[in-house]
Design goal:
The chain is mostly helical. Helices cover about 55% and strands about 0% of the residues.
């Protein structure tokens, strides 16, 4: 494999997230057995949400809102949260101007922002507020913070997660994902990147009360876990584990995201998070052109991602 340059990795991650999301939208909420009988092999239309092929969900829209906020306002969680509200109220960065899916925790947090609660205080902080709704949109925050020192890097990820998901476990999951992304952008293979991410993660959080919940992710042989033991529902640690497992057990962008989607259940989010990782590793040119071409709003995406790249690339 030719090593992609940083621009190709950034674009691969951003587009890859949208592609993975869109592959999963038509089959969201369907069980794994359905995918075994009828595996997803490419872009489909309609299905669960009745959307045209290439449509991204709330995952992609909130990721795009995050990227736009970083481009136009720098790192500003209040601005980011207000853009999320604009998505919720008016369809900002939706694929076709309509919202067809929103998580319970995200809805609650955005209603708090609308009522005047500061964005960083809006996300739920109880044990049951550990869905994957901040993990799915965290990639632009990670990429924009790559040039920062270690503490600033992970604290910004914490702050951005807290807009919708303020429990430490969700924040830590986003940081783990960020550490993995950072290691891949440095040119490491997935297995080596995972070891580096695990080491950095332990250095930051080993004494945190939530650290024990990450025992599976801290295993040196994550790729050896049987598929039957990989969860694919909406729990943040299931989504993170599944996405890493898909990257570690495949050898191309397409294979990774299709494996993620065919795990069933929360297919759009597992696809989105895995697609971000695979896009960072393999680069934009590895994403099948027919999948990229079916994405709506091509000019808007190109303009946003070019601005993002020019501002935040470090090389």
């Amino acid at each position: 494999m030719n090593r992609p340059n940083q621009q190709q990795r950034f674009l691969g991650g951003l587009y890859g997230s949208l592609v993975g999301d869109a592959l999963g939208v038509p089959v969201e909420f369907k069980p794994r057995n359905d995918r075994l009988a009828d595996p997803v092999t490419g872009m489909r239309d309609y299905g669960t949400h009745g959307q045209p092929a290439g449509t991204w969900s709330d995952d992609g829209a909130l990721l795009l809102c995050s990227a736009e906020s970083l481009v136009e306002a720098g790192f500003d969680t209040q601005d980011m949260g207000e853009r999320f509200v604009r998505w919720y109220e008016g369809g900002l960065w939706t694929a076709h101007g309509t919202i067809f899916d929103i998580g319970i925790a995200t809805r609650s947090a955005l209603n708090r922002i609308r009522s005047g609660i500061p964005a960083e205080q809006a996300g739920g902080r109880d044990e049951f507020s550990n869905g994957n709704g901040s993990l799915m949109r965290i990639l632009p925050v990670v990429l924009a913070a790559l040039k920062e020192d270690e503490e600033t890097f992970w604290k910004r990820i914490h702050q951005a997660s807290a807009i919708t998901h303020g429990h430490l476990r969700s924040q830590m999951a986003c940081v783990f994902y960020g550490l993995m992304v950072r290691a891949i952008t440095e040119g490491l293979r997935p297995e080596t990147a995972l070891m580096q991410a695990q080491s950095c993660f332990a250095g930051i959080f080993e004494k945190a009360g939530e650290f024990g919940h990450f025992s599976v992710l801290m295993q040196p042989s994550l790729q050896d876990i049987a598929e039957s033991q990989i969860g694919s529902g909406g729990y943040v640690l299931d989504t993170l584990t599944a996405s890493l497992w898909c990257l570690l057990t495949t050898s191309s962008f397409a294979e990774c995201v299709l494996k993620a989607v065919n795990l069933g259940d929360d297919t759009d989010t597992t696809g989105c998070v895995a697609g971000g990782l695979a896009g960072i590793y393999y680069g934009l040119e590895a994403i099948p052109q027919e999948w990229l071409e079916v994405l709506p709003r091509q000019g808007d995406l190109r303009g946003l991602f070019e601005r993002f790249n020019s501002l935040f690339k470090t090389l």
